[in-house]
Amino acid sequence: MSDTITEAQTAATETATHGVQLSDAAAAKVASLLEQEGRDDLRLRLAVQPGGCSGLIYQLYFDERLLDGDTTAGFEPGVEVVVDKMSVPYLDGATIDFEDTIQKQGFTIDNPNAQGSCACGDSFH
């Protein structure tokens, strides 16, 4: 009986995971940015917020907080991606990538859940 209680307590304290993936290029860029900041307590947070011309916009930023209901996933080299519980259904299966070409430099999000996006590519529905 004590084993069951211990397992239940352990499961309750663990943070749930999400289905967002981070490409190797994006993970390397995030690790590089964290190193430049000189901080090892930051996580990459991806969220979906109302806004934009198509209804929803992505928020991608560094965060030191872990909020109630957050889901996490770890990637090499030591990068953690956090998604809040309300954003998980919109982002399950999405991939964060980093492009560095003459035409474009920055993070991109390939989201199979987006039914369409605006011409500028900043929002989706």
TrEMBL record:
User: What biological processes does GO assign it?
Assistant: iron-sulfur cluster assembly
Q: Which GO terms describe its molecular function?
A: 2 iron, 2 sulfur cluster binding; 4 iron, 4 sulfur cluster binding; iron ion binding
Ranges for domain Core: 20-122
> What name has this protein been given in UniProt?
Iron-sulfur cluster assembly accessory protein
Organism this protein belongs to: Curtobacterium luteum
